[in-house]
Specification:
alpha/beta; 2-enoyl-CoA Hydratase, Chain A, domain 1; 9 strands; globular; binds 4-(N,N-dimethylamino)cinnamoyl-COA
Length: about 250
């Protein structure tokens, strides 16, 4: 079987690629564990000076809905995405999400843990969890409002729609949008620039910015609230409807 997450070093730049294209790179437990394993390698590698995170075809269409449908609240709470996402956010080197195609739900939340987000013109981002009878639970309700402001974040989270690359650029979610064929080179250019900056000062600046967010507690609480929704009819209905490819019937229970 092909590796679900690919990792390579291009000079002193690391490139992490989610590789589950048939499921639009949906983040299953195995994919997230693999990302975590690669992060453990990256953390120990003194040579690596910047990391690009990307996906094959799409960035990632969210957590694997099929794997979540029948979870109860305890199992959902144990579905530890946030630890891996926090680990990525707190890497000492700068990180760049190179976003192509869909970055939805947990996929967008993964991109939000990176220091920069560069996208191709075909990128579409959103937090569609509400349409599944749940809410974002891996940092989305905490990181997105801080990045793009509460009103725009609420529009995305409470309505659950998608926005295109140019709108996400205007909102400040992306720092740059380029044609698809230029995405990787553009991310590399930025990574190489960052790699030339003094390592210790970069690490200190990033740590200080992250400290200032003081968001750890909010992210833990978000996961608690998120998992409580797995006791509801609407979560089961929303996710079963996605799997059955039909419209959900919500009853508010
Ligand atoms: N999960 C599983 N499979 C997915 C998927 C997903 N998120 N997204 C796409 N796929 C699969 C589809 O089921 C389909 O598979 P087959 O039927 O071919 O077997 C294939 O990928 C292609 O999808 P479509 O046939 O739907 O293709 P379309 O072009 O029509 O649509 C789409 C593409 C990306 C717009 C659509 O697939 C879609 O809406 N996908 C779901 C997006 C979504 O709702 N994402 C949010 C998921 S919830 C936490 C842990 C996790 C999370 C939070 C907290 N904690 C532990 C605290 C995260 C939650 C989420 O991300």
């Amino acid at each position: 079987m092909e590796d679900l997450v690919l990792y390579e070093k291009v000079g002193n730049i690391g490139v992490l690629k989610v590789n589950r294209p048939k499921a639009f790179n949906a983040l299953s437990r195995e994919v997230v564990d693999e990302i975590d394993n690669k992060l453990a390698i990256i953390e120990k590698d003194e040579e690596i000076r910047a990391l690009i995170v990307t996906g094959d075809g799409n960035f990632a269409a969210g957590a694997d809905i099929v794997a979540m449908v029948e979870l109860n609240p305890e199992q959902a709470r144990a579905f530890l995405f946030s630890d891996t996402f926090n680990r990525l956010e707190n890497l000492s080197i700068p990180t760049i999400a190179a976003v192509c195609g869909y970055a939805l739900g947990g996929g967008l939340e993964l991109a939000l843990t990176c220091d920069f987000r560069i996208a191709s013109e075909d990128a579409k981002v959103g937090l569609p969890e509400i349409t599944l009878g749940i809410m974002p639970g891996a940092g989305g309700t905490v990181r997105l409002p801080r990045l793009i402001g509460e009103a725009k974040a609420k529009e995305m989270i409470l309505l659950g729609g998608q926005i295109k690359a140019d709108e996400a650029l205007k909102a400040g979610l992306f720092t740059k949008v380029v044609p698809k064929e230029e995405l990787f080179d553009e991310a590399m250019k930025l990574a190489e620039k960052l790699a030339q900056r003094p390592k210790l000062a970069l690490k200190a600046a990033k740590q200080s910015i992250n400290n200032g967010k003081a968001q750890a507690e909010a992210i833990v609480k978000e996961a608690d609230i998120w998992s409580s929704l797995f006791a509801t009819h609407d979560q089961k209905e929303g996710m079963r409807a996605f799997v059955d490819k039909r419209k959900p019937q919500y009853i508010g229970k």
